[in-house]
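Fold this complex.
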Amino acid sequence: MGYGRYLAIRLLNAALVLALVTLLVSVLFTKVAEEDLRSSIQEQINFKLRANPELQKQLSADPEKFQEWYQREYNRLIRVYELDKPFWYRVVKRTKDTLTLNFGNTKMPIFGETNVKKILATAIPRTVLLFTTAEIFVILIGLLLGVKAAQVAGSTLDRGVSVLAMLTSSIPMWWFGMIAILVFSFELGWFPSGGMTSTPPKEGFAYYTDILYHMVLPVGTIVFVLFGGWAWTTRNIMIGTMQEDFIMVARAKGVPERKVIYGHALRAAAPPIITMTIFGLLASIGGAIITEAVFSWPGMGRLYWTALQQNEVRLLMGVTFVTVALYLISMILADLAYGYLDPRVKVGASQQT
Amino acid sequence: MRWVDFKASVKDFWFEFRRQKGGLLGLALLFLLVFTALAAPYITEPDIPDKWPTYWEGNPTNVPPIWYNYFTNKKLAAHEVLTYNDLRITPEQDLGGGIKYYAIEFDYINQYDLPPKDLIIKNIGVKLTDINSPAQITITLVRPDGQTVELLTTELREGSTFQVAKTGAVVNNVFNWAAEFEDPKALAGRTETIKSTMDVMRVIFAKAQPGILINPEPLHGKYTFLIEIFTFNEGDKIDLTPIVITLTGRTYGIMGTDYMGRDLWAGLVWGTRVSLTVGVSVAVLTVLIGISFGVTSAYLGGWRDEFMQRVNEFVASIPVLPILILLGAAFKGHVTLWTIVFLMVIFYWTGIAKVARSMALQIKEQTYVEAARALGAGTGRIIFKHILPQIMPYAFAAMALNVPGAVLTEASLSFLGLGDPTAVTWGQILYDAQTQSATINGYWWWVIPPGLAIALVALTFVLIGVALDRVLNPRLKRL
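Structure:
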């Protein structure tokens, strides 16, 4: 399979997933919008009646006439808002709004905004900041520890990594966040229990150090729960590589052990490690988002929590759609990397050049 | 496979498995969990799931477990409920003139630094002939130092409940009694403030010395509560058998209580059922579907295989949690456990299908399959007789390794408030903890145990799965 064809298939796949999610969100959106519109129609009719006392007098005399007038008004507005059109027609119309993130307004302001698009624009960079910082630590610690464990396979360190990986993969990350708050915030009082800045926010340079200070607990939680798993994955791949013939050759040549590991083995093991890392990151997004909510970090996770707590369906749709879109983009990036790094996928393409 | 062969292979398997320490530990944990789940109605009470969504009347809220006292230097009173048999009852005495007298007496040994939060008396079976002349109740306390405090004298009617510490008259009586011992200088001009902020129960269980109101010091020893009831009409009846006297504790049970006074131990025990049911059913169903899909795909080959692989890839690239959250919110309030199981199964079968397909592809090319085909074996026979038995070991390991994911996802959904509202789940306990800011208030007994339980279930199956994998895939053994 050539690189181009591989990529085309993956892109098509991502497009299909996006289409499915768009459809799902649009269906939900249509339902919500319909409820909103129906209550708004009631209000409009009532308003019209109240604004016109003459009509009110005329109609209150004859209930039958009132019924007729009401029905006529109602049907007119239903037609204006296209609620008489079939459900699927409206779903397709809503799809455009979904794709352009026009989800309308929330009932209550969040981050000082009611427009869903603007709320999302505020939240995304904050989530990216938190998650990327955590992941850099996870990858660095995981890689170093994994290589070390593979080097001394069977030792206490190696066993420790395996046990740690087993333990941390069983822990719900968000629960660990709660424990971190309990210990480091309530009991010891070292770190703030949540939020991104102090209230009121500090000025100048202190603002940034304040953010870093607030990041310690959430980042620490994500890193602690994930790094064991990464170390273990790295270790397994490295052990596989270390048994290859070329390593034996390198050793036989008298290459220093350090160079054998970092120069030969790690280089050969890099493609699977990198791709596993990216796919693993994608898998951990869900847990990380809920963890964010636990720490009241004002990012996507907080939006999920608020949307569910306050029944902000429009916000929930927006957040879901954006999360899925971001997920798919990262997946395509991972696929690109995978296709580029894995020689088996590259064969077709490299033959042409 | 004949019965003898089956028995032999099970024996072989057990021989290998026995040497996996982690696997044995996992198996032991599994037995423990299954036992807890089955015995839940006997360990706690059988009506917990019905009772769970309601407020638990009479229980203290947000209090730590009793054993917390071993770790603090201030001992907190335990929760106690006294019923008819725990009380000394003086039977009906006729005082003449239609007046009848009843007395209830009980001792309370106070060994705590912080006494009970409240004393609640309820369920006195009163039948009055004339509602305009109610019965009378007097509650008196005899303290270890010989002091007698009359806490309350009031009317007793049908269905009366007395929350002693929350009754204004008691506050006044106790204040007046204690003010005699208190340093007058400390009281000057602050009477009302002290009255409104003082903890009545701490005062009546305190040493009668200056400071009793401002900074009460506990007086240990035997306290006797005397409850006297007078009725004034001939036909009035008092039935004392249903009486319940609660000394609302500052600690409760094995795991403490949450904001609705619910016994967290009960929730913890019943949560095992949900967690195990969801985890195991998702794992079994995904493995069955995954293996059927994978084997079919491998067996059919050609464009059908290609198509089925594309379908697999499609489902695999759907981000599960956001979609589950969206669907959960769409069905909010109508979600049952089986909806959650069903939704998870839809998304989780893909990984196993992929592995099953590649295994089946290898087996399909083996010479003995070719031989079987040459002998005229049909598709079904080859799949069921030759391919599936080879994949089965892998399937068992995959089942065990799939449980943790399902358990964690269910907990995550419940934690977001999207679980089955009628079920008692660990995720929901943690959801309540989060909405009630349990972490910031330091309610550790509410936060730590449910999460540990989730982790324990997940770990159990990880241990079993890894051990199975090691036994059944010998290639991994050397690692």
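Chain A touches chain B through 53 residues (CB under 8 Å).
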